[in-house]
Design brief:
Blueprint: E1 2-10, H1 13-42, H2 50-59, H3 75-97, E2 118-123, E3 129-130, E4 136-138, E5 142-147, E6 158-163, E7 169-176, H4 179-185, E8 192-197, E9 201-205, E10 210-212, H5 216-219, H6 221-232, H7 239-273, E11 276-280, H8 284-287, H9 293-299, H10 301-314, E12 318-322, E13 348-350, E14 357-359, H11 360-371
Parallel strand pairs: 8-11, 11-12
Antiparallel strand pairs: 1-5, 1-7, 2-6, 3-4, 4-5, 6-7, 8-9, 9-10, 13-14
Helix pairs in contact: 1-3, 2-3, 6-7, 7-10
Length: 407
């Protein structure tokens, strides 16, 4: 399977200028591609093909006075920007036809130099390489310092250079891993577990283990409010406002990084210790519109479940998701009697049929495991349902970064 390995970059002053130029050129080519297709749509003409756009917007544009500066960056960066526009249109049309899972996506929009995130991608034919001293050598940018937090398990097929809202630079390498080697790293076990996610505790396991919720956003609220208040008092367009905006972005990035690290460590621990994991399909979008919205976003359930999903596929584990309407909090895990709905402030209850006293979350975790069929199997081994969806694709110039833990 394909994975992204992310590492922090520390470009020098000249390299930052070269990267800014590359970001700008990629942005211009992307916007030109969107404009060309929009003009064709309004004129009732067929969309120009990718090859036609490449010739018109890159090859011929470099010969004009208005776009001659496109030749100052790697041609691969410009070609990949065109591919990103092509991919966004393909996803948009697939979404219109109902052939694409998830919420409906809109058409590609014009990007701006004021966007919070910028990225460019170098494929193998760009002739980038990692030097003997451990630097990332990029065409027309130079050898950039990298903080290597781990070794790459295989030769990368491409690298995406990202600048986030906090002004930090990252390199995300696309690696194709060996499934046999991955599964050998984590030998099979006979343990299975049910998982109940919540807000009082981040997760309660069916074996009774309770994992506290770190509440990263809540703990950083005082610092974030102060930084946001300082930003609101700065004059728009001033250098001081730009500095204050960067301070706010860095504070939010610190919270997001801490949450992501917590999710990575917990998901890896659960995957390594259990052959099968059962979770509940949570209505995150609906919960995010209630009075619990801030706590729901702070928990980051969707991100955590996404990590469980791709790690389960990578290491040969079983991840089972049960329906969100399964009454896990209403059913007695001992006798199976449905005891009716209960308000959120009821954390313990006694079964009216068998008299068992239940911890609400622990009982729900046991029911999740039983509903998934991981509690008992015919041969005494954990069941293996259908294949888990493949890992998300590497992002491009106009997507959202999905790189794993960055060094």
């Amino acid at each position: 399977m394909q994975l992204g390995y992310g590492f922090r970059l520390y470009p020098g002053t000249g390299q930052q200028t070269a990267l800014a130029k590359a970001f700008g050129c990629a942005r211009v080519v992307f916007n030109d591609a969107v404009r060309a297709r929009e003009d064709a749509r309004k004129a009732g003409q067929p969309f120009p093909k990718a090859a036609q756009l490449s010739t018109r917007l890159i090859t011929e544009a470099k010969r004009t006075a208005q776009r001659s500066w496109l030749g100052e960056v790697s041609a691969v960066v410009l070609q990949q920007s065109l591919r990103d526009a092509e991919t966004e249109y393909r996803n948009f049309f697939a979404s219109l036809k109902g052939n694409r899972e998830g919420p409906r996506t809109g058409p590609p929009r014009f990007t701006s130099r004021k966007d919070a995130r910028h990225s460019i991608r170098f494929t193998a034919n760009a002739r980038w390489n990692i030097t003997d001293s451990g630097r990332l050598n990029l065409p027309k940018i130079g050898a950039v310092k990298v903080k290597w937090s781990r070794t790459l398990p295989a030769t990368p097929s491409s690298v995406t250079v990202i600048k986030d809202a906090a002004g930090r630079y990252f390199a995300s390498f696309v690696i194709t891993t060996d499934p046999i080697a991955d599964q050998a790293r984590m030998p099979e076990t006979d343990r299975t577990i049910g998982l109940d996610l919540g807000l009082t505790h981040f997760a309660v396991l069916s074996d009774g283990t309770k994992i506290d919720s770190p509440r990263f956003l809540r703990r950083a609220e005082k610092k974030l409010k102060k930084a946001q208040r300082e930003l609101s008092r700065k004059q728009k367009g001033s250098k001081n406002r730009a500095k204050a905006r960067l301070k706010v972005a860095r504070a939010h990035a610190q919270v997001a990084d801490a949450r992501r690290e917590f999710h990575h460590q917990l998901s890896t621990k659960l995957i390594s210790e259990n052959q099968g994991i059962a979770v509940e399909d949570l209505p995150v979008k609906a919960l995010a519109r209630t009075r619990l919205a801030k706590s729901v976003h702070d928990a980051g359930w969707s991100s955590f479940l996404g990590m469980l999903q791709y790690e389960a596929e990578r290491y040969g584990r079983t991840l089972v998701t049960i329906g969100r309407f399964t009454p896990t909090s209403q059913t007695c895990s001992t006798c199976g009697v449905k005891d009716g709905p209960k308000p959120l402030n009821v954390r313990e209850w006694t079964c009216s049929a068998c008299g068992t006293v239940h911890d609400r979350d622990h009982n729900a975790a046991i029911n999740v495991k039983q509903a998934a069929g991981l509690a008992v199997s015919a041969c005494g081994a954990p069941v293996r349902p259908g294949a888990i969806p493949a890992q998300r694709e590497e992002t491009g110039s106009h997507g959202i970064p999905t790189e794993p833990r960055a060094g």
